[in-house]
What does this fold into?
Amino acid sequence: MKVLVIAEHDNHKLAAATLNAISAAQQFGGEVQVLVAGCDCAAAVSEAGAVQGVAQVLSANAAHYRDQLVENLAALAAGLVRDEGFNAVLAGGSSFGKNLAPRLAALLDVAPVSDVVSIAAPGRYVRPIYAGNVMVSVESDEPMQVLTVRTTAFEAAAAGGNATLRELSPREDLGVSRLVGRELSKSERPELTAARIVVSGGRGLSSGEKYREVMEPLADRLGAALGASRAAVDAGFVPNDYQVGQTGKIVAPDLYVAVGISGAIQHLAGMKDSKVIVAINKDPDAPIFQVSDYGLVGDLFEMVPELVAGLAVQ
Amino acid sequence: MKILVPVKRVVDYNVKVRVKSDHSGVELSGVKMAINPFDEISVEEAVRLKEAGIASEVIAVSCGAAVCQETLRTALAMGADRAILVETSAELQPLAVGKLLKAVAEREQPQLVICGKQAIDDDANQTGQILAALMGWGQATFASKLLVDKGTIRVTREVDGGLETLELPLPAVVTSDLRLNEPRYATLPNIMKAKKKPLDVIPAADLGVDIAPRLRHLQHAEPPARKAGVKVADVAELIEKLRHDAKVI
Ligand SMILES: Cc1cc2nc3c(=O)[nH]c(=O)nc-3n(C[C@H](O)[C@H](O)[C@H](O)COP(=O)(O)OP(=O)(O)OC[C@H]3O[C@@H](n4cnc5c(N)ncnc54)[C@H](O)[C@@H]3O)c2cc1C
Ligand SMILES: Nc1ncnc2c1ncn2[C@@H]1O[C@H](COP(=O)(O)O)[C@@H](O)[C@H]1O
It folds into this structure.
């Protein structure tokens, strides 16, 4: 059994989702190899090589892998899987993995499995459907298993490995898509999907200005990542990458604080596996209270500043 | 420029589905169905491109049972010019849908296919990427902005870290994300007009592709329910609970 994990990285650092995918790959019980395709990506390659449980890192270095454009990456991975007889390919269930894995699977003519949350055996998985309201066990006889894994369901693989490194020759540049630019949010805060505490704001915050005024001190105080409901993103309070939910990010922190969020099923889909959920909402019947461990009914504009002040007192 | 918009009939997003008592699937009888919300966004985008004089024709296509004609009529009422039902009562998985859509794309020769980012029933997020691979075309998934300029398309994508803009040659596949646009409501006159627009039915078998499911869905279960906790009286009690009961801060 040979399992390939496709690394997500920016040529310097591995994305956290890759570490989750590596630990999921270990559950196949075979040899885990990691593909790092990039340009001047030696740092990412050596980081991958130092992850526990990785036997070999395959690196492909070329200008046309720099921007992680999916057409070139999928072609490279498909060739590799065929030539080297991999039995399974995994990627993290991030926007990177979701973009890539189905394309790769189609090139191999196999059915991909998305967002796997548990691996009973190679080819036997559980995944959520209908916004997480149903868990389905899936069985696949495909000769090459292609899956994305939900990052919150698998621990991040730890450092401490010592993999062999092997350089691959790059494939030709397909020259399909071209990167025009990226506007990536910069933040000093922990990354949303990996944070121990997440505080999320919804439409109840009423504006971007109020969102920042109310939510940032709370996040600062708790060392938390900031998230949001779709309504808050659609209304322009915060950027798109804050969205938690069925079609946004999936988070499962130790503590999730939902502020001015009603608790639509699409939002719950992204956070209901959090260990402890706190909701602050002025509507005592808001559905968010049905999943909250601690509910506080009241005006968020009073409650949150009071909470920030209270947390300052030991 | 022709645009093909695949639309899927799914359980309405407001419905909280239930698992059948024998765990064989999800209870669908009597459940409200609707066009997949992302597909509504795709139709809207395609119709806007037509209104802007960039697209010449918008074709909605759905793969599934005869009832999917309802979904296609919704797309027609929003402004699609004509519709195609690839009819089959068989279970369809994304790889099979991708193959059927490929066969339709080969017949229709669109310059652009706009899929939804994901169907809210299977939450697969696969079909657009699969179709792009099968066609050998470029793909731009999770689009929040789309600009067509002669033979190319510029797409802003919602990615985990923020936004990314790509340029691709046409033909290409785009998948729509929530913030691409706000779909219009179909007006009554347009719903009436849609009834007269052409809707072709092609039996899936006529397209000569293998649509047999590759994955078996063994068992459906409801996830363990979270039990509702307690309401706290005030902020002080909340802090006390978080510190001493939950011990998370
Ligand atoms: C296809 C599809 C995908 C979707 N994907 C997602 C997703 O990924 N993530 C997501 O979040 N949503 C998603 N949604 C949207 C979802 O259905 C809800 O519309 C959305 O989550 C609502 O956001 P909200 O709770 O902030 O707003 P609302 O539902 O409007 O709730 C606002 C809440 O704030 C409270 N409030 C207002 N003022 C105050 C105050 N002063 N003090 C205290 N409380 C106050 C109100 O009581 C209310 O409960 C999706 C919808 C569709 C159709
Ligand atoms: N049966 C179908 N008929 C038409 N389009 C479909 C069908 N299934 C999926 N699609 C398209 O593919 C998108 C993604 O679906 P999925 O890959 O199932 O999440 C949908 O938003 C539709 O645009």
The longest strand of chain B covers residues 138-149. Chain B has six helices and 13 strands. The radius of gyration of chain B is 21 Å. Residues 51 and 79 of chain B are 9 Å apart (CA to CA).
